[in-house]
Q: What sequence folds into this?
């Protein structure tokens, strides 16, 4: 069941602007698998543009396949044998009409078989005879970054646009799966923002069945998805697989992770930085601290789907291999509820910068944990500073059927009074609750519908 084309307004605008430039444009698109790169390219391509999806065939067969695709647009192009990529691209320049767009999807597959291909393309781009737009696209983020972003790469500095396609924001899942706001948050806590996961889940009558059939079943399409992702993006998947499992399991500090692995913490700096760059984990520091100097760092998984997989599938892998899907799901229900509450807290934080609250617009929100003015440890789910710097927002995120608003606000006020960094800023107290209930008229409360509406950017 196909999803409607959702959002990507910013990326479409960038692509259309580049492809309507007066001279030939070179464009790079990359991002993790299943985020909709191919769908986006097909959405913006015109009738006479040439779209080619590469595979892992040997070089002569790859060249022949691309020639056959071009032959659909240029009569007789595929009737010639091209002995090399260089000769094929020269023929493209000679025969393809000016302004045509050639799209090479899954470009890393071509480079794996022909490491000299980027240098050949570089010569074509730099040639005065170049007259076509070229788009390269790939799911191997490591390879795409190495081909284009590394200073020594042949294609470095030549792209008019470099677009990293990220998962969709949570606000779109209610549209995609036709769910009410609460059910949409619960689904997002499992699937995250990857459109293809939503598309697969939509085939099933309810979220529980989708989860069991796609993720927990040993033959499910997504049962081994994290392993495939890591093989796309890493030279070796063993260490990142271990790091993701430990972080999902609650080892959130560098010292804890290193201790569990039996390695010095210094040896993990680069692997963790790579996982952050690829969008698999995030580094969390308390509100107001300098990211460069703070030593109070926590590492958490960035992606809800990976978090679910490493918390539910990995620890129960042997049971699932024996077909005990229902048993694993039933025993994991409380964990799923807890994960939904965590994701709700994160979405509440993320929504802050997109909402007008207390007459202010806000900078991105963070968590805060530490010692208050009274010397006792405390924490806030959400802390943000207003754009003008004159106000501080303190928020609490609750994922429960009924929240005692007055009691929660009273506790929040007490904590805010104990916060060590208020200075002379105005305090705004806010609650993010699962559903709207009757509450005091002056209380600032946002529910699931409010958050999803804010997160459609």
A:
């Amino acid at each position: 069941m196909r999803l409607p084309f959702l959002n990507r307004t910013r990326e479409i605008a960038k692509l259309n602007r580049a492809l309507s430039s007066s001279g030939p444009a070179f464009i790079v698109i990359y991002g993790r698998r299943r985020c909709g790169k191919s769908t986006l390219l097909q959405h913006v391509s015109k009738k006479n543009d040439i779209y080619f999806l590469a595979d892992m065939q040997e070089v002569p067969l790859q060249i022949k396949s691309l020639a056959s695709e071009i032959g659909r647009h240029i009569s007789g192009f595929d009737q010639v044998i091209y002995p090399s990529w260089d000769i094929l691209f020269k023929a493209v320049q000679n025969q393809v009409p000016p302004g045509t767009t050639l799209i090479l999807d899954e470009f890393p597959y071509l480079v794996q078989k022909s490491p000299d291909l980027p240098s050949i393309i570089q010569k074509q781009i730099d040639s005065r005879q170049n007259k076509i737009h070229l788009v390269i696209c790939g799911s191997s983020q490591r390879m795409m970054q190495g081909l284009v972003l590394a200073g020594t790469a042949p294609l470095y500095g030549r792209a008019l646009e470099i677009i990293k396609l990220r998962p969709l924001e949570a606000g779109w899942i209610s549209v995609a799966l036709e769910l009410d706001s609460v059910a949409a948050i619960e689904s997002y806590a499992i699937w995250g923002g990857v459109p293809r996961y939503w598309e697969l889940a939509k085939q099933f009558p309810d979220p529980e069945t989708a989860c069991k059939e796609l993720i927990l079943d040993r033959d499910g399409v997504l049962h081994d998805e994290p392993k495939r992702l890591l093989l796309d993006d890493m030279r070796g998947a063993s260490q990142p697989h271990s790091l993701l499992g430990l972080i999902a399991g609650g080892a959130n500090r560098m010292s804890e992770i290193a201790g569990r692995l039996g390695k010095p913490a210094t040896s993990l700096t680069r692997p963790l930085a790579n996982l952050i760059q690829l969008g698999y984990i995030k580094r969390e520091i308390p509100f107001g601290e300098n990211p460069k100097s703070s030593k109070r760092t926590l590492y958490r998984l960035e992606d809800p789907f990976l978090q679910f997989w490493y918390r539910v599938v990995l620890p129960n892998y042997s049971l699932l291999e024996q077909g005990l899907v229902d048993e694993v799901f039933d025993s994991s229900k409380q964990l799923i509820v807890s994960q939904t509450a965590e994701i709700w807290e994160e979405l509440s934080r993320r929504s802050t910068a997109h909402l007008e609250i207390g007459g202010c617009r806000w900078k991105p929100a963070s968590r805060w944990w530490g010692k208050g003015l009274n010397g006792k440890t405390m924490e806030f789910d959400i802390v943000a500073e207003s754009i003008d710097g004159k106000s501080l927002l303190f928020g609490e995120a609750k994922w429960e059927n009924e929240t005692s608003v007055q009691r929660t606000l009273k506790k929040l006020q007490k904590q805010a009074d104990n916060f060590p960094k208020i200075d002379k800023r105005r305090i705004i107290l806010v609650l993010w609750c699962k559903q709207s209930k009757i509450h005091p008229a002056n209380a600032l409360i946002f529910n699931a519908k409010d958050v999803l509406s804010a997160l459609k950017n």
